Amino acid sequence: MATWYISTTGNDTTGNGSVGSPWATLAKAIASSALSDTIYCASGTYTALPSAIPARNIIASTIGGAVFDGSGATANVTVGTDLLETTITGLVFRNFVSGSYGIFRSAYGTMNTFDRCVFSGFQMLYRGANQDGGIVSGSWTLNKYAPFTINGCLGFDLSAKIGAPDPVILFGNRANSIIKNSTFQLAGTGFYGIVDFTSGKLITCANNIFDSLASVPWGSAPAATPIHCCYHNVTSFPSGTGNINADPLFWDAPNGDFRLRAKDGSGNPNPVLGAGVML
């Protein structure tokens, strides 16, 4: 397994993918690397996502420093490949519109992982049946499962695509998926719900914050009960151990600062702090 590098100052023609001569795009790095290789993304703003990220470890050289900005483009990226997973760590993705299978679609038979990533300015789409949508979706077909793990991620400024029927944020179809230690804030109404795992399996949902600027439903995830989660402006949230219905008291959410305040304006302690469990 080899290690490769991309940079906004790199060159897809003259570069060789080394730290001293990086490529310029993730698409070039994927096309020139092998399954299970690692690709480091230097800090800077990239303008395009490839159509597939098959079984690579994609890592930001500095957590939160590598930004992929779609400028409103539609994205539908297949992540992983049969039985070989992709792990994406520390990248920022912003200003993408969901394609018919979600912005990121977990490939069949793999447990793909998004770790400490940021998703912002997304417009969500949901089309029903196996044509699912959302930030990350786990589809199922040909008797193959497509689960995903989201850990330590932040999603905000997430809105429903105008005219899209029943958008969701996270979708799973017969997929044993995990959502933990993450924060999601929805920007408005028009959602079917935050999740749709009606035909899937959300086996772990813990230590998350689900917040909305306008009232939205939780959705459907009958296979798992969220635990130690905070929810705010979310209706029909399941009862579960340690769940809290409260304003999470973000420090400055309109400007992207989702740190939690210690106290509210009246001096009352933030009930969310210290309410989680070690996973």
DSSP strand content: 35-45%
- Which percent range fits the helix content? under 10%
| Largest sheet: number of strands, sense, barrel closure | 10 strands, parallel
Number of beta-strand segments: 27
Structural class estimated from helices and strands: mainly beta
The arrangement of helices and strands along the chain is EHEEEEEEEEEEEEEEEEEEEEEEEEEE
- Stretches where pLDDT is under 50 for at least 5 consecutive residues are 140-144
Structure description:
The chain contains one helix and 27 strands. With 279 residues, the chain is an all-beta fold. Strands 3, 6, 9, 12, 13, 16, 19, 22, 24 and 25 form a ten-stranded parallel sheet that branches. It has an eight-stranded parallel sheet with strand order 1-2-5-8-11-15-18-21, with helices on one face. It has a seven-stranded parallel sheet with strand order 4-7-10-14-17-20-23, with no helix packed on it. Strand 1, helix 1 and strand 2 (38-41) form a beta-alpha-beta unit. The radius of gyration is 18 Å and the shape is globular. Mean pLDDT is 86; it is low at 140-144.
